[in-house]
Amino acid sequence: MFIAALLHDIAKKETIKNHKIFTECPRHEAEGAVKARKILTRFDLSQKEQDFVIEIIKKHGLTHKLPASDRKYLAAFKRKNKDIFLELILLAIADVQGAMLKTGNPDDFKKRMVFYEVYGLKL
Fold this sequence. Notes:
By secondary structure, the protein is mainly alpha-helical. The protein has one domain (2-118). Helix content is 63%, strand content 3%. It has helices at residues 2-7, 12-15, 28-40, 47-59, 71-80, 85-98, 101-104, 106-118; strands at residues 17-18, 23-24. Helix 3 runs antiparallel to helix 4. The model has no long low-confidence stretch (mean pLDDT 91).
């Protein structure tokens, strides 16, 4: 989890798009997974551990859609990602806490934090 948290946004620099009102990094998760795979060969990790880290990096952007989703979508997301669901949620919470979202978009920040609390992920 620690390694995934460190590497999850590794491809933002290569994918950043600046617009007048906002900035986005489309596909940074997929690009980051490719970059991370090369880096992870230098770590003393099994193939299973490397794949675990890559899956978290590849799918971490999906968690940003969860606060706006319904319970059915959340249940399906949890089932589909059961092996990494907790790690994805923990990374999402850390990502939101460490981002400028609280000052840049306080309504979105609050919505996400309420979502985490409703599902028992109090901070």
